[in-house]
Design goal:
Belongs to the glycosyltransferase 20 family. This protein has 488 residues and is an alpha/beta fold. 44% of the residues lie in helices and 18% in strands. Bound molecules: GDP-alpha-D-glucose.
Amino acid sequence: MVVANRLAVDSVTEPDGTQGWKLSPGGLVTALEPVMRSADGAWIGWPGSVDTHVEPFEHGGITMVPVSLDQTEVERYYEGFSNDTLWPLYHDVIAQPSYHREWWDSYVSVNRRFAERAAALASEGATVWVHDYQLQLVPGLLREQRPDLTIGFFNHIPFPAYGLYSQLPWRRQILTGLLGADVIGFQRTADAGNFARAVRRLFGYETRGSSIRVPLENTDERRPERSRTVVARAFPISIDSASFAELAARPDVVERARQIREDLGNPKTVLFGVDRLDYTKGIRHRLKAYAELLEDGRLDAADTTLIQVASPSRERVAAYMELRDEIEMTVGRINGDFGAIGSAPVHYLHHGYPREEMVALYLAADVMLVTALRDGMNLVAKEYVASRIDGDGVLILSEFAGASDDLRQSLLINPHDIQGVKEAIVTAVEMDPRERKRRMRALRRKVLENDVAKWSATFLEELARASHATASSSAPTRDGVELEEAGS
Ligand code: GDG
């Protein structure tokens, strides 16, 4: 069973006026859809619109179990606490997090609803996999009601350093919620380290490698030392690499990529960025570097084009409205300063596209720009690599995206260092074709070997091991192992 904020489908109105469902875009669904289909699983989540009361239904081999949210809950639990408190806090306070007690109260009650739904539907001894920062209390709440379950949690976004995490007025409650899981997965080893440090600082629990010893409530006075072991470690997420490679081989997609370049006037260089319109993605930094290169004359607007797809996201949150205004003003300024009739240096598209079109854009792009200021993983970087079956193309990748741990043969950048980003763009544009292919070959090996099926299998294996260890459990031994100091 998967428990996630969003159901894996969006409601759509068919041409004949009837209501239907289609698989939704976005990191989590892109990642889990193939796994769930093959596991014949159930997916609990919010359908994405207010007061939608729908009975469970089947879609694409997955049982969808909708959880309804009312208007106030959408404002407080989702737009508020999830996207205006936790999201900026966990992304290193790039934007200022807002702390409101009524948002927290709503977060608690919605997490409780998800947990109750899962507790009511899960079969005896089932495996439940809870996803992401919107539902951090669910593992703890679920364990209280259903100790028979094996519970996993995966955090798709970063986990911040203690100095930032400690701002959160409800920092202890969140940790208690997460520690209800048997396995807590993070994107990077650094995230797991930040989590373990927060646990030591706030609770003083012992941690040893990826194991955390959580004392059980003292129900048995003869065994005051009883504890359970929670595993917290990195499981870097990936994509369904083969399906991107297959799309990239389709003649209509290849033709579409050619068409895109032709429609742009066959420029020498096509640069490409695609992101949810989010302040974590570094779109402004990218535009600034590009504009300066045009200004300096190191790139020529006559033979260079940047396509920036910014898919609409969280449009009712104030920080996102401001960001959109800022980006659109900057794009307008660049096109005004450097454009000519029939040629615009930036093609800015505020739309979502079908996956075929995304792959055609990946194929049309000489240089892919991933300039996130902070990003759990960044699947776009991996999708670009998987799509380049021609072995060509250059990936510029922020070291603050989890993907940079693995994709070392990209051009790694610090997006705050605008000069460094400019140099990387010039290096990419001028790179010798043999060097491009050498790098892309190494990147492709990584992405094709480590796909999403391997990611979920690795997580689920760890979860099975953890549940087995608990079943035959005793407290972890201290013999011969140095425990990290509480409070360090
Ligand atoms: C979160 C974490 C982590 C985007 N626009 C369109 C579209 N997309 C797809 C991309 C990609 C996905 O959405 C975005 O994934 P990212 O990883 O880049 O970023 P987030 O949405 O922020 O995801 C992130 C991820 O969770 C998974 O754990 O990597 O760090 O922030 O797959 O292709 N897809 C289509 N049309 C679009 O217009 N079809």
